[in-house]
Amino acid sequence: MRIFRPVVFHREVSSLGMNPSFAQRRTQFLDAVGSGIAVVPAGHEVTRNADNDYPFRQDSDFWFLTGFGEPESIAVFDPTHASEQFVLFVRPRDRDLEIWNGYRAGVKGAIDDFAADAAYPLSEFADEMRRRLVGNDAVFVRPGSTPESDVRKALDGLGFFNERFGYPVPSTMTDPTPMIADM
């Protein structure tokens, strides 16, 4: 009989984000993005039946750049921002859910343990993207991903900035996967 043991994130595992190779990859990726902004989503938990999930596997591109092993997160790379070039949007800490599903880094852990310049709750992604998109030349986001629809909505709402005030707003959305694969 095979016993299933869920993956539990411990503090020892969370320090992987501080590994110099992740920082080096992020720097290389930021250089490739140039004056644009890149959005890289994490993997999602998939329900098998009722209260059982399939074993979680992180998205390869997200892991390659961040070392962050939690599901349903989003990494934003904005080389034009003065202080927040690597930003993580994560699920907030929740003691009740952590009892059942394991440790969550939360906003504070994303900064302390994974060297993010800033971190926000996942619920603030759409509002934060609206602010960040103004002034960028291009958006790099994987087609068909959940953040892609949020970025599209933000771009639709920003058209008046370009028309009325002359602020540059990205006109194209490009898949960042080939850039990451070339690294």
Labels describing this entry:
6-stranded mixed beta sheet; 183 residues; 8 strands; alpha/beta; 9 helices
Offer a concise description of the structure:
The termini are far apart. By secondary structure, the chain is α/β, with parallel strands linked by helices.
Q: Helix count? A: 9
Arithmetic mean of pLDDT: 84
**Major sheet: order of its strands?**
6-5-4-1-7-8
β content, as a range? 15-25%
**pLDDT < 50 stretches:** 4-14
- Overall radius of gyration: 17 Å
Give the distance, in angstroms, between the N- and C-terminal Cα atoms: 43 Å
Name the helix and strand elements from N-terminus to C-terminus, one letter apiece.
Answer: HHEEEHEEHHEHEHHEH
User: How much helicity do the residues have?
Assistant: 40-55%
Q: How many strands in all? A: 8
* Strand-pairing-aware structural class: alpha/beta
Shape: globular
Largest sheet: 6 strands, mixed
